[in-house]
Amino acid sequence: MLLQRFLIRLLTMAITLFGVAVVVFVVIRVAPGDPIAMMLPPGATDADIARLRALYGLDKTIVQQFFIWLAGVVRGDFGTSISLRQDVLGLVVNRLPATLELAIVALLMALAIGGTTAILGARERGTAVEAGIDIASGAALSIPDFLWGLVLILLFGVLVPVFDISGRVSPQLNLPFVTQFYLFESIVRLRFDLTKDLLAHMLMPAVALALPLAAIISQLLKQSLKEVLDLDYVVLARVKGFSETQVILREALKNAALPTLTLVGVQFTFLIGGTVIVERLFSYEGLGNMAIDAVINRDLPLIQGIVLVFALLFVLINLSVDMMYALLNPRLRHG
Amino acid sequence: MNALAKSCLDIRDLSAVLPNGLRVLRSVSLSVQPGEVRALVGESGAGKTMIGKAVLGVLPPSVRIVEGDMLLEGEDLGKLQPKARRTLIGARTALIPQDPLTALNPSRRIGPQMTDRLVRILGWSGEKADTRIRQLLDEVQIRDPERVLKCYPHELSGGMRQRVLIAAAFAAEPRLIVADEPTTALDVTVQKQILRLIAQLQREHGTAILFVTHDLGVVAKISQKVSVLYAGKVVEEAETAALFAAPQHPYTRALMAATPRYTDPLASLKPVDEAVLAGLAAEIAAADQAWRHPHG
């Protein structure tokens, strides 16, 4: 039963990814712009162009191209980047950790800020504290992540320059890392000097990405908490002698977190989507930044590779949210 | 009554208002002696549950107490700091809630929900709390405590859950239990068993109970004293036997007439008389007038 559900789940994931692959493949070939024209100097002959097209397989029909590419993907060969002349898989794998670290740090920030303000707001419901939290979350939500990025650059990069506003790490540093997960590896290696430098670079883009999500978490979780706090078992816990904070943390939070959790899953995929522009703003060397370069250069294989990796990430996030939902809700586990 | 004997619960002139100024409790006075069951009876909206919640300190935020004292074993609850009051209420009182289906946390197992007060508020060891809970589960006639303690609430029937809640209420040997319509949400067949169970545990443990109900049949079975409530005002107070033998207030008589009897259901289900309601309205108006203008 459980195995069957898991297999069905895997099959849907595969179909989703296939659909994404088809759409991306077709769209970027139908859209205007020719990668070959951008590679050659002005005055190249038609023969040169035709030769180069044949070299990258662009002289075949879209259907033929798709199946050639798909056959490669199945073998783990995502093709060669047209603009960078390197293996696409290698490029993507190299850049993905930077984006993952940024997204995860942003998510943790959003959970910490959103969760704390939601709990505080629920505990102080009906007071000025709650009103203040509502106003702050309203403001955080009405400004999109890239605009927060610009605001932060202005504030802490230009007016009061306390943080680095460009790149992932200070270029003069000697990096001993063997993986691309710089932040995690610096912590594992206890090189906290490097951790500090990495975080100083990551802080502003992460905050920009985290603020809108933190506001959503804060509003939804606070609302759910307030509803749960009127329920009988919470009243009973108060009669037992537990304080309001204990009641929220021990009785209410887990049950109130379920709707928020589903939403966080969906919103986390939006957050990862947001990394594309925010990474660009902060010249952060992640996958999103590379995606923009790939689109500008009409680097078809690279765009396909990046989009497919993003799609895989989204599918995996949805899967883990479903699993966590079952874990938190005992009534689903036996169903 | 001996004025020196310390009541288990003493409520004096308790008044509470809604934000719009409406009084929901009108100078309520009542007392519960140690080991005694005091029934609070009235129709829905009469404020009987509100009194229980006021004692336990869990009134909804919109209801504000404006006057009166509540003394729990001589300690004035209104004069205590919030934390001290909470701990005192946690240590000396318990609640048997109305709806066992919503009174247990759906995502926590039964065991920890029953022991948490003993361990975390009263400071018992986990072992002692565990032994105590098993003892109480036996008293409420749950035969497989091992399984029940490991269950989540949705795995138990309504009657079983109410047994669990009753066991948890008696576990810490509270001096006072507020039972808030504990049988209303249950099946008719289960109602009797649960009521008998509460009565039996009450006798064995000698616990005072403030028993909130709308059912005069239940009042007759379980209580020694009764207060009849209408619109947040105590209209009659008496020993239970005396009340049933000779109800003094017209409203009490009307309530009794409205109780269904199986022998003659149609004749027995009388709505409360218009004249009685008019008399009550005048009585309430006079009380409010006196309350607002105590010297005029």
What would you say this structure looks like, in words?
- The complex is a heterodimer of chains A (335) and B (296).
- Chain A has 335 residues and is mostly helical.
- In chain A, 76% of the residues lie in helices and 0% in strands.
- Chain A is built from 14 helices and no strands.
- In chain A, helix 5 runs antiparallel to helix 6, helix 6 packs across helix 9 and helix 9 crosses helix 11.
- Chain A is globular, with a radius of gyration of 24 Å.
- Chain B is of the alpha/beta class and 296 residues long.
- Chain B has a single domain, classed as P-loop containing nucleotide triphosphate hydrolases (Rossmann fold, 3-Layer(aba) Sandwich).
- Helices cover 44% and strands 21% of the residues of chain B.
- Chain B is built from 12 helices and 10 strands.
- In chain B, helix 3 crosses helix 4 and helix 4 packs across helix 6.
- Chain B is globular, with a radius of gyration of 20 Å.
- The model of chain B has no long low-confidence stretch (mean pLDDT 90).
- Classes of the chains: A mainly alpha (335), B alpha/beta (296).
- The interface between A and B is medium-sized, with 23 and 32 residues.
Please sum up the structure shown:
The complex is a heterodimer of chains A (335) and B (296). By secondary structure, chain A is an all-alpha fold.
Radius of gyration of chain B: 20 Å
CATH architecture of the largest domain in chain A: Orthogonal Bundle
Biggest sheet statistics of chain B: 6 strands, mixed
**CATH fourth-tier homologous superfamily of chain B:** P-loop containing nucleotide triphosphate hydrolases
Number of strands of chain A: 0
Judged by helices, strands and strand pairing, the structural class of chain B is alpha/beta
Indicate how many domains the architecture of chain A comprises.
2
The share of residues in extended strands of chain B comes to 15-25%
Number of domains of chain B: 1
